[in-house]
Amino acid sequence: MNIRHDSPVRIRSERAWRTYHGGRLLDEMHGISPARDSHFPEDWISSTVRAINAGREDVVEGLNRLADADMTLKDYVAADMVAALGRDHVARMGESLGVLVKLIDAAERLGVQCHPDKAKAREFFDSPFGKTECWHIVGGREIGGEKPCVYMGFKPGVTKEKWRDVFERQDIPAMLGMLHRIEVKNGDTFFIEGGTPHAIGAGCLLVEIQEPTDYTFRTENVTPQGFEIPDRACHYGIGFDKMFECFHYEGCDEAEARRRYMVGSQVKERTDGFVRTEIIGSPRTDCFSLERFDIRRECRFAAEGDFSALYVLSGRGRLESEAGSVEMRPGDQFFVPAAAKGFSALSNDGDGLAIFRAKSAILQTGGQIHEQT
Predict the structure, then answer these.
(1) Cis ω for the linkage preceding 34 (within 30 of 0)
(2) Model-level pTM?
């Protein structure tokens, strides 16, 4: 089998099972008919991280596979880590990509949750990665007459004792009332550091970029549509006492919440052929970066010596590289190895081509480097 590391490689879509319903818009994007909502509301992108779901431990999900070879992306990286990830990256992080990207289509509100920051991830999971993440809204739909929204961060006055009390009583209205509710629109971006309580509202379609773990602490025993969540899926095996230590209880008013959690995109490059917009990156976070390319005609991607993941959100075109020319359509994704030479993305006549590019960042912390497996 001739595995190339000098050109972008096409990756198969990988839908992951989750406790909540959604995914109809993802079906439509991929041309699946009939499009429907189900327990597969997420499309994982260039993932070498296995999804972990209580009761489905024997099911391997979340690991993307190459489209033109019978191997996972994880195996492709392991075959030549330096060519795939770059020498500097491998020296610091081994075979870990250091990043995980998803496209999420929520047909119901997700349960209120938080993820560990790096300190708690090291303490409880012996992992240098927590689960700081960023959401970029790319569309949505009204569900039950309600506009898409997100819940994020505590209001003033919430303590660990008050938060645990509403959890033990499973008083969901009170729980949601302790968080800021923010209606969203296409193009909004939110940065959620580990420890921040949050929930994606029904109707949100978003790109999520995050640290490469699936550690999630849940505070609702039953999802809005009635799916029961076992205790272990709530506290992820560390127990409820430790779980409640992982929440950050610094509350703020709504104006401060918007300043704290919302991110403004920045146009970094504009030509006759394309516009490059930075969604998230340094100095806001050293965990990852996400850019959007809106291509009217052609965009040339130079060899940069690091790896990235590409996802086609809309439009049609083609990708031209040392390996030849391949068509691009909505839902397609590509892994660009560090050893890849320059390549081009071209839009079909009359079609605007929207592509997201996600990258990792060198992790500046001690501890063992590994991904959740």
Answers:
(1) yes
(2) 0.93
